[in-house]
Design brief:
The protein is of the alpha+beta class. It has one domain. About 20% of the residues lie in helices and about 25% in strands. The chain is built from 8 helices and 17 strands. Strands 1, 3, 4, 5, 6, 7, 13, 16 and 17 form a 9-stranded mixed β-sheet that branches. Strand 5 and strand 6 form a beta hairpin. The longest helix has 16 residues. The radius of gyration is 21 Å and the shape is globular.
């Protein structure tokens, strides 16, 4: 059951979040507001240096008193600055590209695959900045989940690496559908520099082979977690926001469903002999009050069932009582270092200084890396890898 506990913690870290990647520097620009939608619309308050990007092109609508182009101080952003909705994202290094994918990098119909082999959550604002989350919205700089990890005494990194027997506790796989053999990242998707990033839960077979858990697919056979239109240009991977749900099998006939919203993933991208690699990946996100309430409610229901998992003894002690909202506010949120951001109905995020009517989210920074991983196929339904 230790693995189940680990999965639940990682689910909170990787799932019940509203993410925005650190790779998209243009989205922040020193503002205290982040637009979680596709492409910024140039709205926001705060001091910063405008660089006159777009030169009046795009569909951004700026409000405020910004004057002129180039460097200048003021509130808001003038019209035409920032990326218009649907406009292509600018690369940090436009001349960069990956190596071409070799034949051994393709795992059948799923394309090149990568296995997450490093996960970390910063414990301090200084470490958050080292990870690349120093510019995120939120007074805690994305360190919220460090409190939970500390109480659970879990090293996330060890969970995604092989133990002395070669077994990996938590297998998280990513596939770039549309990136073909012989193509560089810039040429993926027929020259568009785009692919679909699909995420899967993995399993290890009896002979050590890697397989995809069938719970990763919907009834129509498509990946439940999917990011169409992911950019693979300039040696970088960047996904647009995508809403998805993750179903974690707890035991036979019992699943825990997590609703995941507006998730994005960003990293440096490398072609690998066995697939592709994500390097210096950074997830920045916001764990909303609604997501915490939903997760706590599901945990309490699970732990009230006959034959509940062993870890429920600790859960029932920590979350004693029937008032879930009070448990969240009085127990869980303090462990997560308190609300420090506000996610608005339109998807924008304000930091704690702008929460005049109350914050409702916790900023989270998560770093990850991955290596290429050949996959043999889909695991049998009755494999029971959880």
């Amino acid at each position: 059951m230790n693995r189940l506990r680990d999965l639940l913690v990682i689910a909170m870290a990787c799932g019940s979040l509203m993410f925005t990647t650190a790779c998209d520097d243009d989205a922040n620009g020193g503002d205290d507001t982040v637009d979680m939608g596709t492409g910024g619309e140039g709205e926001g308050e705060g001091e910063g240096e405008g660089e006159g990007e777009g030169e009046g092109e795009g569909e951004g609508e700026g409000e405020g008193e910004g004057e002129g182009e180039g460097e200048g101080e003021g509130e808001g952003e003038g019209e035409g600055e920032g990326e218009g909705e649907g406009e292509a994202r600018e690369c940090a290094n436009p001349d960069a590209d990956t190596d071409p994918l070799g034949a051994g990098a393709i795992s059948g119909e799923w394309g090149p695959i990568s296995r997450v082999n490093a996960l970390a959550i910063p414990g301090t604002p200084e470490q958050s900045e080292e990870f690349g989350c120093g510019d995120m919205v939120g007074l805690n700089d994305g360190t919220g989940l460090a409190g939970l990890i500390g109480i659970a005494m879990i090293d996330l990194n060890t969970l995604v690496q092989p133990d002395e027997n070669g077994d990996i506790s938590v297998l998280l796989l990513a596939a770039l559908e549309g990136w073909a053999e012989g193509e560089t990242g810039n040429a993926a998707g027929g020259g568009a520099g785009m692919a679909t990033l699909n995420m899967y839960i993995g399993e290890q077979g009896e002979n050590g082979e890697f397989l995809i858990d069938p719970s990763s697919f919907g009834e129509d056979g498509s990946a439940l977690i999917s990011f169409p239109g992911a950019s693979t240009e300039c040696g970088e991977l960047y996904t647009p926001p995508s809403d998805f749900g993750l179903q974690i099998p707890i035991q036979e006939g019992l699943d825990l469903d997590l609703s995941l919203t507006a998730t994005t993933i960003g990293s440096e991208l490398r072609a690998d002999a066995n697939g592709f690699a994500m390097v210096k990946g950074t997830l920045q996100g916001y764990l909303t009050r609604e997501a915490i309430i939903e997760l706590v409610g599901k945990l309490k229901m699970l732990c009230a069932e006959e034959g509940a998992p062993d870890f429920c003894g600790q859960v029932n002690q920590l979350l004693a009582g029937d008032d879930i909202e009070s448990l969240v506010e009085d127990v869980v949120v303090p462990i997560l270092r308190g609300y420090d951001a506000k996610v608005e109905a339109d998807g924008t995020v304000n930091d704690g200084n702008a929460c005049a009517d109350g914050c409702n989210a916790i900023s989270v920074c998560l770093s990850l890396e991955s290596v290429g991983q050949a996959v043999a196929g889909v695991a049998p339904e009755d494999m029971g890898g959880m």
